[in-house]
Amino acid sequence: MSRSPSGDRVALWRNPAFRAYVLQGVLLAALAALIGFIVTNTMANLEARGISTGFGFLDERAGFSIPQTLIEYSGDSTYGRTFIVGLLNTLLVSALGIVVATIIGFAVGIARLSPNWLLARLAGAYVEIFRNIPLLVQILFWYFAVLQALPSPRQSLSLLEIVFINVRGLVIPDPQPLSGFAATPWALLVGIIAAITLGIYAKRRQVRTGKALPIYWLGAGLIIGTPLLVFLLTGAPLEWSIPELTGFNFSGGVRVLPELVALWLALSIYTASFIAEIVRSGIQSVPAGQVEAANALSLPGGITLRKVVIPQAMRVIVPQLTSQYLNLIKNSSLATAIGYPDLVAVFSGTTLNQTGQAIEIVAMTMAVYLVISLLVSALMNVYNARTLLKER
Amino acid sequence: MLYKNKFMVAVPAALLLGGMATASQAATLDDVKERGSLNCGVNVGLAGFSAPDSDGKWQGLDVETCRGIAAAIFGDPEKVEFTPLTAKERFTALQSGEIDVLSRNTTWTATRDNSLGLNFTATTFYDGQGFMVSKDLGIESLEDLNGASICIQSGTTHELNLADYFPSRDIDINTVTFDTPDQTAQGFAHGRCDVLTSDTSQLSALRLQLPEPDSVEILETLISKEPLGPVVRQGDDQWLDIVQWTIFAMVNAEEMGVNSDNVDEMRDNPPNPGVARLLGKDGNYGEQLGLPNDWAYNIIKNVGNYGEVFSSTVGENSPLKIQRGMNALWNEGGILYAPPIR
After folding, report:
1. Which residue in chain B is spatially nearest to A251 when comparing CA positions?
2. A363 by DSSP, 3-state: which?
3. What is the ipTM of this complex?
4. What is B28-126+228-332's CATH number?
5. A9 strand-pairing partners
6. What CA–CA distance (Å, rounded) separates A264 from A97?
7. What pLDDT digit, counting tens, does each position of B230-285 carry?
8. Å between B174 CA and nearest CA of chain A
9. Which residues numbered 63-122 in A keep a CB inside 8 Å of some CB on B?
């Protein structure tokens, strides 16, 4: 029994809060029972039909090779390992795609608002063309266009005889670290931390004194200069494995698959057309008075854009940008059409076919995309919270 | 808490038992008869095995096998619905009951037969994994392939065969994996790889799709055994027997010299007791399968014997011109051997 706001005792079932809890509880139990039913039913049916179940297959020998592996992998590795290899390949093409799509998208979005007639029209044409052609068609176009245009390995185009381009991909020298190289990555880390610290200091100093430091030049100097200095001081402990044509192909060097390049291009160019529109809408959402006020204070055009317009536009841009990033990651699964070994191709494709355990594999694949997407949204939400207009 | 748990287990279990009872009783033959047509899973497009012709009608060895089964059941080879499936989709489609029989150049392997809830019925084509290369590369044996890129279709036994064969011989290869036979052939045609690997029968078919079929050759070495044949779901023995004996009837008919032209005459005047049993003049071999007694007559009349089907789909009367080789009858130098109808 509880008390009503007026202090009288009322029956428990007439208490709205209690009733709400009971209803929620019943609903939750029903949902759990339904899920339990589906799971046990599926398991029993699979068993009745003699289909093997469980995740034991992850420890079995995979026995097939994958053309691009970021970690050690051979036909003797396990299916669990193919999962990781596929996942890393998906993350690689997604990360590359996000970076390039963002750069192209911002450039085109800003260009579309340019007072230069030609530039604005070109940017408009870019958006209208690439966002209106299905992505799969674009991927196939880039893949076969790139393949058609490139020569065979024996007639490779070369740059100074160390970088080669042919139909099998781009072959570049592979850096082989010698002993003593370990200091250089640490120096890079130190450089990055120093640059960030300097940035924070410069901002405080500007707030205090109104004087700005040339922070971009100083930061770049720290990030590039520190590791370079350490690298030279330790005696440049790096050897290059130069690609060489032997028989069919190049040996030595690192090969960038044409599938990766085609997928990367298609994903970046397609997603950039959407990002451009988002950037344009963000910038146009900033009231004209803000720019006029900046002009009245005689701020230069570049600073007006960077310090007045973009920060306010970001509030509109970020939530939509998140959706585009998520789309790009999920669209990367179209890789399977051109033979890029992403998660869907090697795990949900080949592994599924060799083991036949569709339910486990599809569930794992879906879980991976869900986790990646939730992580990206979480990061973007943090960023969004930081760029929110702070009302004072 | 305990009470709640029991409830949650008991309710689904009860529902489950109810559901399972009907599932296990249903026989595929009854379903097919009730539906009035056979659902057959075939390749999305592989000349000679299953591909739609210019009129949109499915043609090929795997397709004719399904027509044979339909003829045995209904006496009408056209009562088949064909479902085109990629290599990846095929087993799920059969497991889920979307199709009744999978006749899609599928290799009989232990894993597929034993752990997927499926049963292989019989071999309709003995194949092996071969390699197709451009003639100007001057390749004579597989040892010359060191460093080569190989185009391959995903979800096939070929991927596994490659990983078995080359590393153990210290030959370094790069694989490029595509989704469909067509994409694989395109990758090869565009020069993405030096070599295209697949069953030799498929290579013969894919070769015809290349811009210049004469510029490539198929190497003689085969690296695997690929017995191809129709697959059914595990747990329905009658259905397995029907599919199996449809193929056996076609092979036995060839051995006995019964073909679509002379089958009427043979039925009216059986030259020997074997033919009489095959064509339902003697015994009740059709009834034993749950089929009409003229089941084999219907197959041969409508679809033909194995030799006729082979020659019109992949053999000398087809563009592929594949030799009988291993697929000849056992008494003609091949390994095709069907159990007797008796």
Report:
1. B147
2. helix
3. 0.70
4. 3.40.190.10
5. A3
6. 5
7. 999 988 999 999 999 999 999 999 999 999 999 999 999 999 999 999 999 888 99
8. 6
9. 63-67, 74-75
